[in-house]
Write a structure and sequence with these properties.
By secondary structure, the protein is an alpha+beta fold. Helix content is 42%, strand content 18%. It is built from 17 helices and 16 strands. The chain has helices at residues 11-17, 24-39, 51-62, 75-79, 84-98, 102-107, 150-160, 164-171, 185-194, 205-214, 221-229, 251-261, 278-287, 294-312, 315-328, 338-348, 394-403, and strands at 5-10, 66-71, 108-113, 121-122, 125-126, 148-149, 174-176, 179-183, 234-235, 265-267, 272-274, 356-364, 367-375, 383-390, 417-424, 436-442. The chain has a 5-stranded mixed sheet with strand order 12-13-14-15-16, sandwiched between helices. A 3-stranded parallel sheet has the order 1-2-3. A 3-stranded antiparallel sheet has the order 6-8-7. The radius of gyration is 27 Å and the shape is elongated.
Amino acid sequence: MNRYDVIYLDITRFISTVSDMSRMIISIQSAVIEELMHQYPLYVRDGETILANALLQISEKTGDKFIIIIDEWDALFREAKHDDALQKEYVQLLRGLFKGGPSTDKTIAAAYMTGILPIKKYGTESTLTDFLEFSMTHPAKLAKYIGFTEQEVRQLCDDYHMDFEKMSAWYDGYSFSRMQHVYNPNSVIKSVINEEYANYWTGSETYESLKNYISMNFDGLKDAIVAMLGGKEVRVTVSTFQNDVTTFKSKDDVLTLLIHLGYLGYHAKERRAFIPNQEVADAFSDAVRGDDWSDIEKLIQESEDLLESTIRGDSDAVAEALERVHSSNSSVLRYNNEASLSSAIMIAYYTARRFYKIVPEFPQGKGFADLVFLPRKDTDKPVMIIELKYDKDADTTIRQIHENRYDGDLKKYFGNLLLVGINYDKDATGSNRKNHSCIIENA
């Protein structure tokens, strides 16, 4: 404190006030140099236009060093994303300030940069190699500062009489090795102010970008989005991302950007991305409404009908719906075991997440239920136990439910409990030639 002069640069403010974007880097340097000349009138050469040189002149003559803070350092890469010349000029400014070596050691005591994106890369190398970087893919010890912690959200819910379970379903889901539950802080605050749980992201600029990014025609991108909508995690290589919003070479680059934007969670150890919560799931659902995603949009629309058919006990309608999911998404749902069938169920019952907490491998009685749909507090929908079989029959699945005596924690729901047996027969023959069969019972 009080040992160094601090140079603070708000890049978003410069962008919003500069009259000619192409002169923004010149404007930044001239504004700071003007202040330096006022503070150090004897040490900055007249006519100096390069900020790094001005700082060095002061430091060499006074021994003073500076702290530099750059807020939203990446705003230029987002706002002028197609202006390569301006971006390179900006990178040269940063390199001049922070390239390392004797001149930087003389002038810079510390430097901090914040932004959405990590530091820009060219090829495999970072533009600024001397920085210690904390990001959404590798937050390290700063993980607990990315958003609200569970303890903070519980306290907010207590203070403002909000339902913690609903708050978790809507805004939790970001998970890091050092912090398992991280909440979207902006959405939590808006939910508290409005006393309503909703998607508070759809009006933002990044939401418009989301629609553009997931519509990019990279092989496997649509399949990955479908799989994540169904609750699956997908493997992502984050190291190839160039840390800008235009240089995409694969689906992994797009998915990595969505991780940094907060639209996907990321498990670094397993290198897998996922949709973290209901708010983000809704954003994806809205974003895929368009011609390029007509098949997925239809799937989402049919999901609500499937849930109602299940609750009505219409097993034929359920089997028909699952048949459509399989045929329309065969590239994602390659059926060869019960795990693949489970993925199909999760996709088909996508909209059920609004009403249910879906728990795979739920321990009950003598075994585990493949999938249990537990209703949220604000719904009167029944509990559903779903048992899955591959190349057996639906009767076998129902019989297994009874044999495993699924009661325990679910016993209190008897009278409002559905037993759902689903089988997939890849070699189904006969007049109907349907691969899926289903039996539904009340308990």
